[in-house]
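TASK: fixed-backbone design
INPUT:
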């Protein structure tokens, strides 16, 4: 198995090369015909889309407010599931849930690194 520092160094080199290529790509886009026009048109369409969405949300009134409340509750419940799963994992318990169709779900763990200091 490779050393973690070795893999980290390779990852950093990979990211540096990606950044370089992305810069080249952006330069090429600036020089591409019709790109700026398309970007402006896209902005206008996004604004129009947002206006239509806002208008529709206001028409729904209390029903849209209920949706927002349910959405916030879903986020809260998902965080609660994560907290319970981590507690059970720390205690050595198995972690699994089933949906209404009997499908089993198991947690997916992710480890990431952040710069300290």
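OUTPUT:
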């Amino acid at each position: 198995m490779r050393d973690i520092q070795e893999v980290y160094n390779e990852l950093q080199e990979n990211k540096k090369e990606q950044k370089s290529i992305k810069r080249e790509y952006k330069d090429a886009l600036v020089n591409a015909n019709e790109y700026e026009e398309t970007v402006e048109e896209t902005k206008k369409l996004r604004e129009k889309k947002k206006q239509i969405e806002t208008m529709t949300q206001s028409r729904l009134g209390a029903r849209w407010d209920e949706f927002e409340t349910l959405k916030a509750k879903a986020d809260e419940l998902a965080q609660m599931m994560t907290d319970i799963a981590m507690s059970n994992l720390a205690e050595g318990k198995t972690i699994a849930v089933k949906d209404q169709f009997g499908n089993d779900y198991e947690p997916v763990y992710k480890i990431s690194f952040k710069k300290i200091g």
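COMMENT: The mean pLDDT is 94.
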